[in-house]
């Protein structure tokens, strides 16, 4: 039966509702449940930090000021030098999780990260070669389009598991809420992380390939004339008419009357984040081209991706900088 005993930590008594013992300061921690151990640690932390309110307020002020200044610096950097900003952000998105997951021994994530890195490194190597092989653009867009669809499906599955857990549906299958929530959040993180990372790598590869093919330039006119039966993304002939149903893929015609392979234009617009014609730079009407709403780059989804980039790439750097300031000032 449960009794009551009190634990005194640095002169502060804490009632934990456990079995009473003669000596309130001595008991066997191994007999406590994880929740009771957490309560003990929580009580010790409160006792340790008692009377440090002024120091804590100073630390919070340093954190707020650093976050505001860092945000202003990042916004200015992105506006003035977007290429270097995107490159550094992509590198940090790729490397920062590796440090934390290695430290925490999350071998499942490290395995998926290694597989993704090997395949993407090979694809990126193929995309940056000059002269560009005729099969490379389709290979690149097929890989990143597949990765995009898989990550999207995993993200939706993770979100569904989280919502089902919040509504208590996991109890029907006798699954603990914490286990179901951990599984759902893990799936959601995997989907969003690899979705963002894949799209950023695809955008980099799209820039290299499009400039190499010659039908697209970021700031000027195309360096080649586009024939009616040539795809401006991969530079290969169009074999299926727009009005015909293709066996492997269809042919799409944009509002500017330029035609493209299905995989090429899907990769260019959805994965490579280029919402313009690769040849004449006219705005692409994705609502007309893709009827599936999940394939439309929605503004809200773009904001979510930007937030995730900031969270994964820059938040650890900012927090580390704040901890360095606190260490120099002697704040704990």
List keywords for this structure.
332 residues; mainly alpha; Herpes Virus-1; 3 domains; two-stranded antiparallel ribbon; two-stranded antiparallel sheet; 9 helices; 4 strands; elongated; disordered N terminus; transmembrane helix; zinc-finger; Znf_RING/FYVE/PHD; Znf_RING
Task: Provide a quick synopsis of the model.
With 332 residues, the protein is mainly α. 60% of the residues lie in helices and 4% in strands.
Characterise this structure.
The protein is mainly alpha-helical and 332 residues long. The chain has 3 domains: 54-105 and 316-331; 108-214; 232-296, 2-Layer Sandwich (Herpes Virus-1), CATH 3.30.40.10. 60% of the residues lie in helices and 4% in strands. The protein is built from 9 helices and 4 strands, in the order ββααααααββααα. It has helices at 34-48, 53-80, 82-104, 107-127, 136-166, 177-213, 262-271, 286-289, 299-328, and strands spanning 6-9, 12-15, 251-253, 259-261. Helix 2 crosses helix 3 and helix 5 (136-166) packs antiparallel against helix 6 (177-213). The chain crosses the membrane at residues 59-77, 84-100, 106-125, 146-173. Keywords: Membrane, Metal-binding, Transmembrane, Transmembrane helix, Zinc, Zinc-finger.
In angstroms, what separates the terminal alpha carbons? 41 Å
Side by side, the strands of the main sheet go 1-2
What is the total number of structural domains? 3
Assembly classification = single chain
**What sort of overall outline do the alpha carbons produce when their principal axes are compared?**
elongated
Strand content: under 5%
Largest sheet: 2 strands, antiparallel
Category by helix and strand content: mainly alpha
Number of strands: 4
User: Mean pLDDT, nearest integer?
Assistant: 76
Poorly predicted tracts of residues: 1-25
Membrane topology: Multi-pass membrane protein
Transmembrane segments: 59-77, 84-100, 106-125, 146-173
GO molecular function: ubiquitin protein ligase activity; zinc ion binding
Domain RING-type: 231-281
């Amino acid at each position: 039966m449960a009794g009551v005993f009190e634990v005194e930590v640095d002169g502060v008594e804490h009632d934990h509702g456990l079995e009473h013992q003669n000596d309130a300061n001595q008991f066997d921690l191994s007999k406590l449940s994880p929740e009771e151990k957490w309560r003990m640690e929580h009580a010790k932390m409160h006792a340790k930090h008692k009377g440090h309110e002024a120091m804590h307020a100073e630390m919070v002020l340093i954190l707020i000021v650093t976050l505001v200044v860092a945000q202003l610096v990042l916004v200015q950097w992105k506006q003035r030098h977007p290429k270097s900003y995107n490159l550094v952000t992509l590198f940090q998105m790729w490397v920062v999780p590796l440090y934390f997951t290695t430290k925490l021994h999350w071998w499942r994530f490290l395995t998926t990260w290694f597989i993704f890195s090997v395949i993407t490194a090979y694809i990126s190597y193929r995309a940056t070669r000059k002269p560009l092989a005729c099969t490379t653009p389709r290979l690149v867009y097929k890989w990143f389009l597949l990765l995009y669809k898989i990550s999207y499906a995993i993200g939706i599955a993770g979100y569904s598991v989280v919502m089902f857990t919040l509504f208590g549906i996991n109890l029907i299958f006798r699954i603990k809420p914490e286990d179901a929530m951990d599984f759902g959040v893990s799936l959601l993180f995997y989907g969003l992380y690899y979705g963002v990372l894949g799209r950023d790598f695809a955008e980099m590869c799209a820039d290299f390939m499009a400039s190499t093919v010659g039908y697209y330039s970021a700031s000027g006119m195309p360096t080649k004339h586009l024939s009616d039966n040539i795809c401006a993304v991969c530079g290969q002939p169009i074999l299926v008419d727009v009005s015909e149903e293709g066996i492997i893929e269809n042919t799409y015609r944009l509002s500017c009357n330029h035609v493209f392979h299905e995989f090429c234009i899907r990769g260019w617009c959805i994965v490579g984040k280029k919402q313009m014609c690769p040849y004449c730079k006219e705005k692409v009407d994705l609502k007309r081209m893709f009827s599936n709403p999940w394939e439309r780059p929605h503004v809200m989804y773009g904001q979510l991706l930007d937030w995730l980039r900031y969270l994964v790439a820059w938040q650890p750097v900012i927090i580390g900088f704040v901890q360095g300031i606190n260490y120099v000032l002697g704040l704990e």
